[in-house]
Specification:
The protein has three domains: 3-148, 3-Layer(aba) Sandwich (Rossmann fold), CATH 3.40.50; 157-278, Glycogen Phosphorylase B (Rossmann fold, 3-Layer(aba) Sandwich); 296-447, Aminopeptidase (3-Layer(aba) Sandwich). The chain is 33% helix and 25% strand. It has helices at 17-26, 46-51, 64-73, 88-97, 151-158, 175-182, 201-208, 223-228, 239-246, 261-269, 280-295, 306-317, 319-322, 333-342, 389-403, 418-426, and strands at 3-8, 33-39, 55-59, 78-82, 102-106, 117-120, 139-142, 160-165, 188-194, 214-218, 232-235, 251-254, 273-275, 296-300, 350-356, 361-368, 374-381, 408-414, 430-435, 438-444.
């Protein structure tokens, strides 16, 4: 959408919530030209719109003629309505007067609407209640998957606490090098555990002095507590690995001594993230993989409930997904369930439903024709859900290289599927062949 107009008001009577949540939604359209149309009511927070660098148009009334005139003057493609006094008749008249206009309407009181997209972002939203309240073609966005939250809440919840312990003496002198890698990640805090036996302690203290995201714990006797408070750890494959395992703390293990080889091999064979020596690039990718593991969960298709199977079938049969599949026919429930049931006997393929850390289903990934050398991959996001492709791709790359331990990931994509090709390009896939309208893409382990 190139030109978007938000229609909302704020005042001492109305409150400020409409404008605040609209400002959150506006950030989801970074490439669009956004304008807010509001009245200058007493106690308004129109200054917030200006502070966020959006254009502001002041309306004299809530009349349809004035808004219609503005829509035409600004050549608006999408109108976002967040206003209790704009109803079904108002919306329908706007659509009649502007046939190409799309309307997104906020609703949290189950009112009738004439819109293209209906958004009820409350966690209690009940999509079924809108069956008779919105056009059949209307896209319903209801519930926690669509909840709009300001950045401060997202940052607070997404902050990751990392436990870093390279041994009391840090004989390999890796603490600072690891912290240099971690500095590239935003919204983290690191607890570094060391002792006075560390010959590099002065340099470590100097490095951490002005960095609020680093806390040094010297000769601490609260290691268990620090582990409990952490999201993951970076440690050596030593006794510390036993402790982290007991505390059920995910970790990345970096081998620093010969006597750690046995533990290193065990951890590697069991799908843990390990480095046989420190390498900044490899550690950065391992941290990225760890972040993905913490923020997603994979549900094997053979473990799906019937409701989840039906949900995935609905996604798969959605036109926006089906158009990019080799088989574009509508799949019957019986055939869908039969195929999923057959997966328990197949060793060369595995399918996952991907959920976020809030247990919301966001997409599907799959690996087929799995061999020692390579696996064919596929993915699709929940229809109409934005910003999920990167999460799914990172999950594929982590699982494929770190758990399946293949050397190459292969995907076939229609040349007209530009968004998919852009995604593959971002993750360093390269074209290795063409077959009619289909491009074969490859990612090698060393290029990930």
């Amino acid at each position: 959408m190139n030109n978007i107009l938000f229609r909302a008001d704020s005042s001492s009577t109305i409150g400020t919530g409409h404008i605040m949540r609209d400002l959150v939604l506006a950030k989801e359209y970074p490439k669009s030209h956004i304008t807010f149309a509001t009245q200058a009511l007493e106690g308004n927070i129109n200054y917030k719109i200006v502070e966020d660098n959006y254009k502001l148009e002041i309306l004299k009334s809530n009349g349809i003629d004035e808004l219609d005139s503005l829509i035409k003057r600004l050549a608006i493609d999408l109108l976002v309505i967040d206003h209790y006094e704009i109803d079904y008749k108002f919306e329908k008249q706007l659509k009649v007067q502007n046939p190409h206009l799309k309307i997104l309407s906020f609703d949290d009181t189950y009112e009738k609407h004439y819109c293209d997209i209906l958004l009820n972002h409350n966690i209690c939203a009940n999509e079924s209640k809108y069956k008779e309240l919105a056009p059949k073609s209307c896209e319903l966005r209801c519930g926690s998957n669509y909840t709009l939250l300001r950045d401060e809440f997202i940052e607070a919840k997404n902050k990751k606490t990392i436990f870093l312990a390279m041994g009391g003496a840090d004989s390999a002198n890796l603490n600072i090098e690891i912290l240099n890698v971690l500095e590239a990640f935003s919204n983290i805090e690191v607890n570094v555990v060391t002792t006075v036996a560390n010959q590099h302690l002065d340099a470590l203290e100097a490095f951490a002095k002005d960095k609020k995201w680093i806390t040094l714990h010297i000769n601490t006797n609260t290691i268990a507590k620090l582990m409990k408070q952490s999201d993951f750890a970076i440690i050596t494959p030593s006794v510390t690995a036993n402790e982290a395992y007991f505390m059920e703390l995910p970790f990345i293990a970096i081998q620093t001594a010969e006597n750690q080889k046995d533990m290193y091999a065990y951890l590697e064979n069991n799908g843990n993230l390990v480095l046989n020596k420190f390498d900044s690039t490899t550690l950065q990718k391992s941290v990225e993989s760890m972040m993905i593991r913490l923020d997603t969960q994979l549900i094997n298709f053979i473990d799906l409930s019937l409701a989840e199977k039906k949900m995935i079938l609905k996604w798969r049969n959605d036109e926006t997904i089906r158009q990019w599949m080799f088989s574009q026919e509508i799949i019957a429930l019986e055939n869908h369930v039969s195929y999923i049931d057959s997966l328990s006997t197949k060793e060369d393929r595995i399918y996952f439903l991907v959920k976020d850390k809030n247990n919301n289903a966001i997409g599907v990934i799959d690996f087929t024709n799995i061999s020692i050398d390579k696996a064919d991959i596929g993915l699709y996001a929940k229809p109409h859900m934005k910003g999920v492709g990167k999460i799914l791709m990172r999950t594929i790359i982590d699982y494929g290289f770190n758990l399946l331990k293949v050397k190459r990931l292969i995907s076939e994509v229609f040349e007209k599927n530009k968004s998919a090709i852009t995604l593959y390009d971002k993750f360093n896939f390269s074209e290795i062949g063409r077959r009619g309208e289909i491009i074969t893409m490859e990612l090698k382990h060393e290029n990930r």
